[in-house]
Write a structure and sequence with these properties.
218 residues; 7 helices; 7 strands; four-stranded antiparallel beta sheet; 2 domains; alpha+beta; three-stranded antiparallel beta sheet
Length: 218
């Protein structure tokens, strides 16, 4: 393999003796002189003088190491399409009966299922609070019956997990409850397949609604 020669000093007598490359010992725990990270440095061993001519040999693979490391870095993920999010929120406002601008959604993942929590941004906004409670109470009954037409309409697609949640509706429990600012639906199951579907459904909601909730199981 060819090597790149760097002359550090042009003056001084020629080397009287150089260590052959075959005698270079592995360094830093590497098993072979041909390892990617080894830099072979050959200097004169017969006399050490200020004007000594020195040679440094670098493998081509070492010279290419930094560019390869930069290329290997992953490029950032593209930003979500704002037009899609705008369409989701617009259809959501229509289906739910209240504005996303005056409310906050949260989607939680638990070991036994998860939860959907919606509240009014203004605690004194009783009208929005009551609309939230009416909507989630209605959704609880529809989900329990295996009816997911509302989220399918809002997202203009069948959310992940929905087919299994509809199929295993008898294995899933939906519990509605009021909260100070709105309402919450607690979702639970003892069925592993249903649990995975619930988590997939909630993660999709987090992503498509851009709520920034944790996607890990709490």
């Amino acid at each position: 393999m060819w090597r790149v020669l760097f002359i550090l000093s042009r003056e001084g007598p020629p080397l009287s003796k150089c260590q052959p490359h075959s005698q270079i010992q592995p360094r830093n725990g590497f098993s072979s002189p041909a390892d990617l990270h080894e830099v072979s440095t050959l200097l004169s061993v017969s006399s050490v003088q200020p004007t000594m001519r020195s040679f440094v040999f670098l493998r081509p693979s070492v010279l290419c190491l930094c560019p390869l490391a930069l290329v290997a870095q992953q490029s950032p993920k593209p930003a979500p399409d704002p037009s899609h999010h705008d369409a989701v929120t617009s259809r959501g406002d229509h289906a739910m009966g209240f504005s996303h601008e005056t409310t906050t959604h949260h989607f939680r993942l638990y070991k036994t299922g998860g939860a959907i929590d919606v509240s009014a941004n203004n605690p004194k906004n009783s009208a929005t609070r009551d609309e939230i409670r009416m909507h989630l109470s209605h959704i609880t009954k529809r989900f329990a019956a295996g009816d997911f037409d509302v989220p399918m309409f809002i997202h203009d697609a069948t959310p992940p997990g929905v087919p299994v949640m509809a199929k295993l509706r008898d294995q899933i429990r939906y519990q509605y409850s009021d909260t100070p600012g709105g309402a919450k639906i607690q979702i639970s199951t003892d069925n592993l397949e249903a649990l995975q579907a619930i988590h997939a459904f909630l993660r999709f909601q987090i992503s498509d609604h851009q709520t920034h909730d944790p996607t890990e199981v709490q």
